[in-house]
Amino acid sequence: MTTTPPTPPSSSTPPSSARSHRTQAERRAQTRAALLDATIECLVELGYPRTSMQEICARAGVSKGAFQHHFAAKSDLMASAVEQLTIRLQRRSAPEARDLPEGPDRIAAAIDLLWDSYSGTLATAAMELWIAARTDPELRRAIRPVDRALGRSTLELLTGLSGDLPEERMQTLFWLTVNLTRGLALDAELGGDPRRRQQLLDEWKRIATLHFGE
């Protein structure tokens, strides 16, 4: 009686250790993403003072030990959450940036793009952290590099859209717009009149187009 030898394993089948490694990496990424998403939710819904690690872990569905495995401190988690949100918003607005109109209307459209980036969820979460960082040195050290990186990346995006506008004038336009939009975002958080905010934004677009669109 002839015995059929066993079929050798396919060379395309990865070793079990490789499969396990990828699964663990995916799990770690999912846990980290869940913690970051939960942090943003808490900052927006509860504010920084009421955003506890217990609440974040409960919303993320992970243990406190899992948090400690991914982040050295609460301040690191906060900074990473805002960084992740910023990256998402920049990726979302990249197609819009490529489609900005030519000519004088380009400046006004770029300002609208900055307003979209610096308002909404990002503005709410960042505002909570900026205010808390004033009296929390550890948090301030953690979020300052993130805030600067956000400014640099947004300025680079805007510079690429500015055409022939000199760099110094581009930076002036950028920082004037950023500080205006941050103020308008704070006004929105305090329940200010949305019609007034729109009027101020429209007026700044008119002035900026006249002054920087020459």
Automatic annotation (TrEMBL):
Domain of life: Bacteria
DNA-binding span(s): 52-71
Keyword tags: DNA-binding
Gene3D superfamilies the record matches: Tetracycline Repressor, domain 2
Biased composition, class Pro residues, residue ranges: 1-12
Location of the region described as Disordered in the Swiss-Prot/TrEMBL record: 1-29
Residue ranges annotated for the HTH tetR-type domain, each copy included: 29-89
Name of protein: TetR/AcrR family transcriptional regulator
Taxonomic lineage: Bacteria, Bacillati, Actinomycetota, Actinomycetes, Pseudonocardiales
